[in-house]
Input
Amino acid sequence: MSNSRVPLKARQVSFAWDKTPLHWLPDDPFTTHTINVLHLLLPAGERWFVHVYKQVLPLITDDRLREDVIGFIGQEAMHSQAHDEVLPHLREQGLDPTPYTAQVDWFFEKLLGDRTLPPGKARKWWLLERVALIAAIEHYTAFLGNWILNADELDRRGADPTMLDLLRWHGAEEVEHRSVAFELFLHVDGSYRRRARTWATAFTALVFLWQRGTRFFMANDPTLTDEEARKVSWLDFHRGGRQGVLPSTGAMVRSIPRYLSRSYHPEQEGDTDQAVAYLATSPAATAAEARAAGAAR
Output
């Protein structure tokens, strides 16, 4: 396993969704929609990451870290755009995500957005709280990125290749930049109490929003009967984890003490070489590299 640092760059990927079915994992709407929640959460969440990090840039006194944060901002902006572009495809297939995405937008833009605070300690406190929240969330994006890169069962079950490439391109970049958010948190604050408190907030919010998003998708899927639409339970999620089509419950539970350990560092999550190797073969990423090379000539 390698954890060597690599320069971070935004890859200007694009995806064609016209051949991707609504249930891109055949005969498994529950797993499809559980993973589809990413398309609802990530556009608003990663726009919020970018917004917060632009505010914290003046506090960074380490040149290498500043370079990493700028690369992180570029990658996160591209992630937001790529997942946002899936939403019109879902609407065309009869599943309008707008009611749910409006709630997610409120969560990030209002609840976690800028507040009218006096300059000084109060304003800096709110900025540092959000930097710590992002570090906690990035622990889980790295966890999920590592999982999707190794989720061979999705291939065996005939998952749509375009959707898999989107998820693995994104997952590989999450593994590639997995240390940046935590190292930024350590640089500007590093309080263990704040790390633990914001982890609890982030974990609770992610679980709540994810199960709510899955229920929303299942309830609004035009191809499902009322009985099928109501079939959303933790047992289904646990079963998907045991089958390898979703992260396992055990792996998710074991990720908690890792982050809360005082010796934690994100290098424990995933393998840089594996991430870079996928990005070198990803259809979307290699096409983006070719377009960039052509434009430079």
In short: DSSP finds 14 helices and no strands in the chain. The mean pLDDT is 94. The radius of gyration is 19 Å.
